[in-house]
Amino acid sequence: MSKKKPYFFNYKESAFRYLLISCSLVIVAFFLALFYMLISQSLPAISSNGFGSIFGNIWDSNNGIFGGLPAILGTLASSLIATVLAIPISLGIAIFFTEYAPARTRFILSIFIDLLAAIPSVIYGIWGLWVIAPLIKSGIQQPIINAFGFIPFFSGPAYGLSIFMASMILTIMVIPIVSSISIDLLASTPLSLKEGMISLGATKWETMRHVGIPFAKIGIFGAVILGLGRALGETMAVTMVIGNSYSWPFDSVSIFSPATTITSKIASELYEATSATHMASLIELALVLLIITLAINSVARLIINRATRRGYPQ
Amino acid sequence: MRLIGRRSKERLILAGTFFLSIIAIIPLLSILATVFINGVSAINLEFLTSLPAPFGESGGGIGNAILGTLIINSMACLFGIPLGIFTGMYLSEYGQKSRLGTAVRLVVESLSGVPSIIFGIFAFTLIVTTVRHYTAIAAAIALGLMMIPLVAKATEISMKVVSNDIREAAIALGIPKWIRTTQIVFSIAKSGVLTGCLLAFARISGETAPLLFTSLFSFFWPSQVDQPMASLQVLIYNYSLSGFQDWVLKAWGASLLLVLIVVAINVSVKFIAKPKFKGSA
Amino acid sequence: MVYKLETLKLKAWFSEKQVLNDISVQFPPKSVVALIGPSGCGKSTFLRCLNRMHELVPGAKVSGQVFLDDDDIYSPKMDPMDVRRKIGMVFQKPNPFPNMSIADNVVAGLKLAESHSKNDLAEIAESSLKSVGLWKEVKDDLKKSGASISGGQQQRLCIARALAMKPEVILMDEPTSALDPASTANLEGLIKQLKNEITVVIVTHNVGQAARISDLTAFFYLGVLIEFGDTKKLFELPKNPLTEKYITGRFG
Questions:
Q1: Which positions in chain B have a beta carbon within 8 angstroms of at least one beta carbon in chain C?
Q2: pLDDT for position B280
Q3: A205 CB near a chain B CB, below 8 Å?
Q4: Domain assignment present for C130
Q5: CB contact under 8 A, B31 and A98
Q6: CATH no. for B45-51+60-272
Q7: Is the Cβ of C79 closer than 8 Å to some Cβ of chain A?
Q8: What count of other Cβ atoms lies within 10 Å of the Cβ of residue A192?
Q9: CB A1 to CB C113 under 8 A?
Q10: Helix (H), strand (E), coil (C) string for C160-212
Q11: How many independent structural domains does chain C possess?
């Protein structure tokens, strides 16, 4: 019943192998093309204005001046604030999940965390714009201005759509990333060490504090960097609540003033770019963003890989 | 005395972490609630099946946006899922240690961190400027590229966890490697791959930025794929910023549809994959 | 005497470390040969050289010749997959394909390597299952997953799967060490029956098992074949003092 093949060169095996390799190469090609397109399309701006001009602080498309610093600073500031605020909340969730929550609660909580991550950015935007911004404006921003308005950072007037608002929304979007990785890290604390603490009569918190967190520390740091990377690239939610204005930080330092980010600027202006240099400058901004996010994400992945590989026996 | 202090501290931490968890959940519940409350009144048969009414008039619907999203997503899946699955297969069974495998793994990892707007700009510069008009195909390419890392990673991981005993059994029977990869290992990994594809689909359903410069928007039924096309996401973005009450209401309605799809997919995959119960409580 | 399987100066390495040295043996047809020896002596490596699975380990090397009837399975003209279809293997841990039914498991090797008609496959499945004594137990559950049956049944399923290929030799790598005593006894009875059809080469760390079921026994130590011969004679009057020490349990 079986036919003897004189040569055992199996063409189907090779064909399949080449199929897989081609697909992988296609993806590598797209990745390289991504860089190539961004670089080549921003060349008109780089060649006419020089690369450094993107870091100026005036954006005047009519006169060909394209300084993107306020947008870059807006991106960095809103993302950093959001990430810092997200840390305690994410850690709290992770500790609660791994040590205190009963099984059913854990299942529900994990669904909630996944949903937080899954809600589309534009929905965060519409919710932030129509539901939260008015509340925050009168309920949080105004009182703070009344109390601390003498400090430039908290000076009025209270714009609902502001860098403060964007940071709030970004915080919520960063939480699921940091908490889910932290949960994985805390859950893989070596059992033998935990049992050592427990057998000494330690409480759950003491075990967490002396064994769990020290072990997971580095990985959690990596998770935070990853969350930062996510915040940096966020577009729609930020665009809809940040106010899209160049006044921050050079005209007004207040966190309650409208501002803009790289992504918001591109999202709102690319469609109506008036000149080739205008478009090229926007793409140059995108290139800056790409470089920053790739760098941040690589660092984050390196840290997390190192942390999970360093012998966490199950 | 000290023991009482420790117990109270424990209770304090429990309360504190529980409270922090609630802080994170409240926005989620608020979003779900407001989307539902504001959106449900907009949804009726006309809303789901008709074209937008002329500006300024009320009535009409978002039928073209619903259809457009389906079309664009389907095209993106056609592009992204096969590429993602084959790449994942390669990484798991053929490229574990090779140099190409390492490079591909690095690229896939990097792609997953690229902001979505960059994909949109890429498709814009690659396709839209070349053909000189906005087209839904460019949107499909951008979204498809976003799907690839998710699908590839899910495929790779699902196949890697298949026990090596199974591969040995297949080798001992003289089954060729490509048959072993597709009909045995992949078959066992099916549910993981399906989960990855569903989650990738949910992910791109919500992505708006890439569509802003590719498929743009349209007030008509999708007729050709090589033209601008309406989509739920861009509709929500445009309508909610319009200041026109009827349109804002429609934006909430569209948001409700979008949230339903995304929530449905994310909850149902929890029941395909084995639920992981981490923690010691 | 025509030998079914013969090795000539077989050597094997894991990267730089040599684990088999000049093994030359002859196995007659329709017999059971037991390979015994302490952990790390090379018996499993030797087994895997017989169906060309050792060479799949990264850095592994094989030299020497292995003849199935008159053909050297290591000749460059031989397709390794062909070799494995003629020389089947059963592993220590039962490994049925969990995504296939019991019936599909039995004929997996046939289905996936060549094309057969559906009726053929059903008949082959039935006769293979009968020959391992599993037919009565699973004939009403043929559509259930291959992993849904007990460990002992799974192992018999794996043997049926290997036998469905109509191999000339079947290799078994400690097939009963993951099973309970009842299943073990069951399997030993099956092996004794199988030798009426084909040659069985079985690696076992259980000296008693070797004595019970095999016709010939080979004793390995540190990669060298110390003694090989008729099982009864080897156990009653071992020629080599090392053999005697191992059988009597003084080491290993």
A1: 97, 163, 165-166, 168-176, 179-180, 183-184, 187-188, 190
A2: 33
A3: yes
A4: no
A5: no
A6: 1.10.3720.10
A7: yes
A8: 8
A9: no
A10: HHHHCCCCCEEEEECCCCCCCHHHHHHHHHHHHHHCCCCEEEEECCCHHHHHH
A11: 1
Query: Closest approach of chain C CAs to the CA of A13, in angstroms?
Result: 12
What's the confidence (pLDDT) of residue C252? 66
Domain limits, chain A? 49-309
Q: How confident is the model over C8-33, as pLDDT tens digits?
A: 999 999 999 999 999 999 999 999 99
* Residue B196 reports pLDDT greater than 90: yes
pLDDT, tens digit (0-9, with 9 covering 90-100), for A36-64 = 999 999 888 888 777 778 888 888 877 77
Determine the structural domain holding residue C83 and report its residue range.
5-97+168-247
Give per-residue pLDDT as tens, B259-278: 999 999 999 998 886 544 33
- Please provide residue C228's backbone torsions phi and psi, each rounded to the nearest 5 degrees: -145, 130
The model's pTM is: 0.88
The structural domains of chain B, with segments of one domain joined by +, span: 45-51+60-272
For residue C190, what is the domain's CATH number?
3.40.50.300
The answer on pLDDT for B281 being more than 50 is: no
Kindly report, residue by residue over B61-86, the tens digit of the pLDDT.
888 999 999 999 999 999 999 999 99
Q: Are A244 and A264 within 8 A, CB to CB?
A: yes
- The residues of chain A scoring below 70 in pLDDT are 1-9, 310-314
Give the separation between CA B258 and CA A102, rounded to whole angstroms: 32
**Topology (CATH) of A49-309:** MetI-like fold (1.10.3720)
Q: Which chains touch B (3 or more CB pairs under 8 A)?
A: A, C
| Contact across the interface for C81 and B184, Cβ inside 8 Å | no
Residue A36 pLDDT: 94
Residue C238 lies in a domain: yes
C124 occurs within a structural domain: no
B54 touches chain A (CB under 8 A): no
Tokens coding C135: 């037919």
Taking the C-alpha atoms of residue A49 and residue B201, their distance in angstroms, rounded to an integer, is 41
- Is residue B111 within 8 Å of residue B145, measured between CB atoms? yes
Q: What is the DSSP string of A234-252?
A: --HHHHHHSB--TTTTTT-
> Does residue C25 form part of some domain?
yes
B205 Cα to chain C: minimum distance (Å) = 32
Of B98, B148, B197, the residue nearest A31 (C-alpha): B148
